């Protein structure tokens, strides 16, 4: 089989590729298997990459389907009762209360404080982490479930996002001092950027983000969705969830967001990113 695939074939192939990715097979072996079954190498590789990357809608609007997070006002997330304060539909965001206790917030800060390094961003051309003027902060990445305390937080957040623990990236704690900010950006990997390809092979595209606020910011530091005109000023222990990858692989352009400048005091957060498939 060569050339572009028609819609019915594409759906069948996408389903087969997705099943293999969920079983833990890597992108290269899946493309090789397709080639052995008669697809030309270019078509097979493109089909796998397209499913891993997702697409930003151009001619069609992003379709807001039902997300994985329960619609309940309160629910048990692994080991803690969590309460829903606010939901928006466009983009899909949820503000949760009591995600971390005050002591857990303080413990995350103290564990991270001596390890902090200048924050970096992903270079669009190479996929490497590089310093950037767009992000004035310092951060530290934990390994998934690296000790009992981090494991408890990882499992609670996974349950809250209703997404497998194995699909999550490690917790990233970020500290912003006075004037610290993160200019408008997307959390997903832009499919059109050459540097994104290296990240897709390990878990595919990001699907959703959860930001837990570890302290009360004296002034500034809001999370603002620039395209939607939304701004959040959460309190210590609260968390903001937002989803940008729907069930047909579209990426939501309304989730462009910024960490506004801290104008007084400091800001501490911990971020969790989920991937479409198992993150290795």
Using brief descriptors, characterize the structure shown:
6 helices, 280 residues, Jelly Rolls, disordered N terminus, 17 strands, nine-stranded antiparallel β-sheet, Pro_4_hyd_alph_FE2OG_OXY, 2 domains, globular, alpha+beta
The helix/strand class is alpha+beta
Number of strand segments? 17
Q: Give the name of the CATH superfamily of the largest domain.
A: q2cbj1_9rhob like domain
CATH class of the largest domain reads Mainly Beta
Low-pLDDT residue intervals, each spanning 5 or more residues = 1-5
- Strand order, biggest sheet? 1-2-3-14-10-17-8-7-4
Major sheet size, sense and barrel closure: 9 strands, antiparallel
Give the tally of structural domains.
Answer: 2
Distance between the termini: 31 Å
Radius of gyration over alpha carbons?
19 Å
């Amino acid at each position: 089989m060569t050339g572009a695939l028609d819609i019915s074939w594409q759906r069948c192939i996408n389903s087969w590729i997705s099943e293999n990715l969920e079983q833990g097979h890597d992108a290269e072996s899946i493309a090789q298997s397709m080639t052995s079954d008669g697809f030309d190498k270019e078509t097979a590789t493109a089909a796998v990459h397209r499913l891993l990357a997702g697409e930003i809608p151009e001619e069609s609007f992003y379709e807001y389907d039902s997300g994985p997070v329960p619609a309940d006002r309160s629910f048990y997330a692994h080991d803690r009762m969590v309460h829903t304060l606010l939901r928006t539909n466009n983009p899909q965001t949820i503000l949760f209360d009591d995600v971390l206790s005050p002591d857990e917030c303080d413990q995350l800060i103290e564990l991270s404080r001596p390890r902090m390094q200048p924050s970096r961003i992903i270079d669009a051309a190479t996929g490497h982490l590089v310093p950037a003027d767009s992000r004035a902060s310092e951060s530290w990445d934990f390994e998934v479930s690296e000790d009992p305390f981090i494991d408890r937080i990882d499992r609670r957040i996974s349950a809250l996002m209703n997404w497998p623990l194995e699909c999550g990236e490690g917790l990233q704690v970020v500290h912003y001092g006075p004037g610290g900010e993160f200019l408008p950006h997307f959390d997903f990997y832009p499919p059109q950027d050459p540097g994104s390809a290296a990240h897709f092979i390990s878990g595919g595209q990001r699907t959703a983000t959860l930001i837990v606020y570890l302290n009360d910011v004296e002034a500034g530091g809001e999370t603002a969705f620039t395209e939607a005109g939304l701004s959040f000023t959460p309190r210590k222990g609260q968390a903001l969830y937002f989803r940008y990858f729907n069930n047909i692989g579209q990426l939501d352009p309304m989730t462009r967001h910024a960490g506004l400048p801290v104008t007084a005091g400091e800001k501490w957060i911990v971020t969790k990113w989920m991937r479409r498939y198992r993150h290795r």
